[in-house]
Design brief:
With 301 residues, the protein is of the alpha/beta class. It contains 13 helices and 8 strands. Helices cover 46% and strands 10% of the residues. The strands form 2 sheets. Strands 5-2-1-6-7-8 form a 6-stranded mixed beta sheet, with helices on both faces. It has a two-stranded antiparallel sheet with strand order 3-4. The longest helix is centred in the first third of the chain and has 17 residues. It is elongated.
Length: 301
C-alpha cells in the first residue's frame, strides 16, 4: 500500500474541524485525520507493506523547465536554489513536521527523494513491486499506474477513506475510454488547470478520448495530423499542429518517473511502534492519545 501522503493530509485538514487542537492550542486536525485514515486503511485492507510517499520537491525543476506553467499558480515563494514554497493554509504548514515525527516514531516508512514528487516515488515503487499494489491518492494523475495484469489499482477517496473508488482498467475504460498508460495521453491532451498544464486548445476530455480511440495513442494522433487522408477535422488538425512543441514535452511532465533513486528502507507495516516512548511523548504533547491508540490497536492485530 502506497500513500500519496500530501494528498491525504490535505484531505484530512479540510475534512476534520480545526477545532481539533493540541493542549497548547496548535491545530492538529490534519495530523489526527491522517492517523485515522491510516488506521482505517490498515483495518480494511490489511497490507503487508505500507509506505508514506513524500513530496521532497512538489514542483521539480526538470518538469518546470519543460512546461514553465507547471503548478506555477500554487507557488507562494520562489527559491532559485531548492524547491519553491507551495501555498499552504497557515494552520496546515506547522502540522507537516508533526506528521513526519509521528510517522517516524511509529516506524511507518516515509520515503521522499530530492528533486522528485511523491507521485514519482509511487511510480518507482509500483514498478519494482513483485505483488499487488494499492495506491491511495486523491490525485487522478496516478490513474496512469493502473495495471490489472500486475494487480495495481488506485483507491481514490470519495468520503474520508471509508468510501474508496476502486480504480481498475474496467473502471478507466468505462469512465475515460482508456487504460492506465492511455490516461497520460488523455490528461496531457485535455490539460489540467490544477497542475498548470495547458493542454491542446479546443481538445477537451471527450474529444481526447475519441481521438485516442480512433488513433490508438498520442503518437498515432500526431501521425494523423501529418496524414491528409486521416479523419481529423480541419480544426483538430490545426490545433494539434500548433501544439507540437507542447505535445513533444508534455509526456515527460505528466508521466510519473519510474527510476527514482530510492534510499534503503523497510516497507513492512510495523506491528508495534519503533520508538514507544517517543510515540507516547508526541501523543501527549499534541493531544493525539485517542488517534494514536486507535492506530496502534489496529497495527497490533
Amino acid at each position: 500500500m502506497l500513500l500519496d501522503t500530501a494528498s491525504l493530509y490535505f484531505r484530512a485538514y479540510f475534512g476534520v474541524p480545526d477545532s481539533v487542537r493540541a493542549p497548547d492550542g496548535t491545530p492538529v486536525n490534519a495530523v489526527r485525520g491522517l492517523l485515522d485514515f491510516i488506521a482505517r486503511l490498515v483495518q480494511d485492507h490489511h497490507p503487508d507493506d505500507l509506505v508514506a510517499c513524500w513530496d521532497n520537491d512538489w514542483r521539480p525543476r526538470w518538469r518546470v523547465d519543460l512546461i514553465p506553467s507547471y503548478k506555477a499558480h500554487r507557488v507562494a515563494v520562489e527559491r532559485p536554489e531548492g524547491p519553491d514554497e507551495e501555498e499552504t493554509p497557515d494552520t496546515l504548514a506547522p502540522q507537516v513536521p508533526i506528521i513526519e515525527a509521528v510517522l517516524d516514531a511509529l516506524g511507518i516508512a516515509r520515503v521522499g527523494v530530492a528533486g522528485y514528487e511523491a507521485d514519482d516515488v509511487i511510480g518507482t515503487l509500483t514498478g519494482r513491486a513483485s505483488g499487488p499494489v494499492d495506491v491511495i491518492t486523491g490525485d487522478r494523475d496516478l490513474y496512469q499506474l493502473v495495471d490489472d495484469a500486475r494487480q495495481v489499482r488506485v483507491l481514490y477517496p470519495l468520503k474520508g477513506v471509508g468510501s474508496l473508488q476502486v480504480t481498475d482498467e474496467a473502471w478507466l475504460r468505462e469512465k475515460y475510454g482508456v487504460d492506465g498508460p492511455g490516461y497520460v495521453d488523455l490528461a496531457l491532451l485535455r490539460g489540467d488547470p490544477s497542475d498548470g498544464l495547458p493542454g491542446v486548445p479546443g481538445i477537451g476530455e471527450k474529444t481526447a478520448a475519441k481521438l485516442l480511440d480512433a488513433y490508438g495513442d498520442l503518437a498515432g494522433i500526431m501521425a494523423a495530423v501529418d496524414d491528409p487522408r486521416s479523419g481529423l477535422t480541419p480544426s483538430q488538425r490545426k490545433r494539434l499542429d500548433e501544439a507540437r512543441a507542447y505535445v513533444a514535452v508534455a509526456p515527460t511532465v505528466v508521466r510519473v518517473a519510474g527510476d527514482v533513486p530510492l534510499p534503503d528502507f523497510d516497507p513492512a507495516l510495523p506491528s508495534e511502534p519503533l520508538d514507544p516512548e517517543l510515540v507516547e511523548a508526541l501523543a501527549a504533547r499534541w493531544g493525539l492519545n485517542n488517534a494514536m491508540h486507535r492506530l496502534l490497536t489496529t497495527l497490533g492485530k
